[in-house]
Amino acid sequence: MKRTAAIGWSVAILIGLAGAVYADATLYMGQPAAEAGITLRSWGSGSIEDSTDTTFVGSRSLKVFTRGLFSGGWLIYSRPVDIRADVNAPNGVLRMALRFPGTGGAAAGAGGSGMVGGPAAPGGFGAPPAPPGGPAAPGGLGAPGGIGGGGATAGQTTTPTLRELRLVFETSDGKFTEVMLPLQNLRSDEMGWQTISLPLRSIPDLSSTNGQIVKLGLFGDSVGTFYVGEIRTVRESGSLQGYIAVQNAFGSVFTSRSQERLSIASGDELTFFGVVEGVNMPVEYRWSFSGDPSQVDGIGNAVRRRFPKRGTYTVYLTIVDPSGIRPPATAKIDIQVN
């Protein structure tokens, strides 16, 4: 499926990079590498190559095979890619479209809906049904061997076999900088592509370079294959937003967007899912079951909790930007235990 990449985000002034305002920078847009002035170089025991297996934009994608943090591939640019304007902007991000074989949308058939059925794909707990009138509910708990369901739902959370990507940047002034990009709890579209935004300010020492990218290295934290459909800088203005989805033992789903209180019987177990909206960046989900949102009782996209005693419990979810650029978002729901 071909599509046109959406543009529209924002970015901040960092000490160390200066210059005129430039348009968003393109590091890869689905074209044949040679035509784009890019040389692909496999590294270590990994590999990188042009592929027509699947595309996000254009006619190609990059197929990368990695065996660890030091095997994968390099994109070497015949002309430096100038990203100074985006590094100097408060909400400048590096946007990447990634696809992992066997995970993602309906075409890939990974994940699941419901809590009963066949075995889950690696990392899949199974996605609860979509709340009425709302988007698809989140997916995987992130633990291999969970209870799975049927085919995947467009927009659900999926879990690639790799947990992180290692990105290495070389600039024309001879400096190197790198960052680890978390891959868990990403949402995929109907074709299995997952778009993720990495704040440029979270890349260590990037602001101390001249902002002229000449090489970009792509490596994983373990053995795996992934496709790259797009790499570009954009300016993302969206704030963190989110809500709580709750699934009971019968598979019914409720959300904090549609109701403030959920009544259950004493001893019932619930599964709580965090759903982020507005941005496509890595986030951290922090849970509190004590009624005090500052007390963290659990961390993760999804957590289970049993309520053995009667009473009313206020469950808080705090969605945190690990880079600290965006303020956290909070959601809550009351659980009435009868």
Give the helix/strand class: mainly beta
CATH superfamily of the largest domain: Galactose-binding lectin
Query: Could you name the CATH class of the largest domain?
Result: Mainly Beta
Give unreliable regions as ranges.
Answer: 1-23, 103-157
Count up the helices. Answer: 1
Q: Name the beta content range.
A: 35-45%
Using the CA coordinates, give the radius of gyration.
21 Å
Residues in helices, as a percent range: under 10%
Average predicted local confidence, pLDDT: 77
- The CATH topology of the largest domain is Jelly Rolls
Number of domains: 2
Biggest sheet character: 6 strands, antiparallel
Shape: elongated
CATH architectural name of the largest domain: Sandwich
How would you summarize what this structure contains?
The protein is mostly beta strands. The protein has one helix at 84-87, and strands at 26-28, 38-43, 47-51, 61-66, 72-82, 92-99, 157-158, 164-171, 176-182, 186-187, 193-199, 212-220, 224-235, 241-247, 253-255, 261-264, 269-277, 284-288, 298-299, 302-306, 311-320, 329-337. Strands 1, 3, 4, 6, 11 and 13 form a six-stranded antiparallel β-sheet that branches.
